UniProtKB/TrEMBL annotation:
HTH lysR-type domain: residues covered: 1-58
Name of the molecule in the record: Transcriptional regulator
Organism: Pseudomonas aeruginosa
Superkingdom in the source lineage: Bacteria
One GO term (biological process): regulation of DNA-templated transcription initiation
Length: 293
């Protein structure tokens, strides 16, 4: 067994596709398949369910996969620990982020990149449940998500700024000149909304329901980019966090008494394995954010 076989196994889990996993690992698909079969033979277990395509992991495969993630995290942690002893931060910081968060993760990335030029970053846009699950499974180092679902026995969080809301619109299609809007005014507008079940959408639905109102959902999507495109084309308006960067002719009007159901936070898992890189970045982020709170 070698570390590459474990990387192949984790890549297959992340891509759910033999060809894509091979491309990510910079090997041919036959090489990846051969090395995984070799790992199965060495362990005496079937790890992957196969037919003409990847069909998932066996129960034993899921258990081995958890160990593989831990071993790879330990390897990267060892390199990061050695770099920390030299006064450096190196490696890849993996961030899971909820969409339409009031905190712009690129500010944190820019800050860390400026201080640590050798640091690399991977960002994933996911639901709050997926962010916490990814942290628990050691797929991410840090997460930006809502704190109401945080199990403090497994995670540690730094509270970020409260998320307040505004209405994003194109003045050519929706000539709104108010300085402040209420929810009653929004109930008569065609809206683009994130898919049901996402935390920001749940907060929007709660704000409408608590006032006995129902939104006109012209468009529902799990893509923020598609939401912005729909607003740009005049298909609908969209409720966005105040402070969002607005491009071109779009305008963002504050909404009265509009906020999310829970505070946003920067989150790290509290248990091991937890790399030196994750811990160092979390503490540096804490110190950087403190003067801004």
């Amino acid at each position: 067994m070698d570390i590459k076989q474990l990387k192949f196994l984790c890549a297959l889990d992340e891509t759910r596709h033999f060809g894509q996993a091979a491309a990510r690992c910079h090997v041919t698909q036959p090489t990846l398949s051969m090395r995984l079969r070799s790992l199965e033979e060495e362990l005496g277990l079937e790890l992957v369910r196969r037919s003409q395509r990847f069909e998932g992991f066996t129960e034993a495969g899921e258990r081995v996969l958890a160990w593989a993630r831990s071993l790879l995290a330990a390897q990267e942690g060892l390199y990061a620990e050695a770099a920390a002893c030299r006064g450096q931060l190196v490696g890849t910081l993996r961030l899971g982020v909820v969409p339409l968060a009031s905190f712009d993760p690129m500010r944190l990335v820019q800050h860390m990149a400026g201080r640590h030029p050798e640091l690399r970053f991977q960002l994933y846009s996911l639901s709050s449940e997926q962010v916490l699950e990814g942290l628990a499974r050691n797929q991410f180092d840090l997460g930006v998500s809502y704190l109401d679902r945080l199990d403090r026995s497994h995670f540690e969080g730094i509270e970020l700024a409260e998320t307040r809301m505004g209405l994003l619109h194109h003045p050519s299609h929706f000539p709104l000149d108010a300085a402040l809007l209420n929810w009653e005014a929004l109930a008569g507008l065609p809206l683009g909304l994130l898919s049901a079940g996402m935390h920001f959408r749940q907060s929007i639905d709660h704000n409408f329901r608590s006032r006995g109102l129902s939104p006109i959902a012209r468009l529902e999507t799990d893509s923020v980019q598609q939401l912005l495109q729909a607003v740009q084309r005049g298909l609908c308006c969209a409720i966005m966090p105040l402070g969002s960067e607005v491009d071109g002719e779009l305008r963002l009007i504050p909404i009265e008494d509009a906020h999310t159901l829970a505070a946003l936070g920067l989150i790290i898992r509290s248990g091991q394995p937890r790399s030196a890189l994750a811990e160092a970045c979390f503490e540096e982020a804490r110190n950087w954010l403190a003067p801004q709170s």
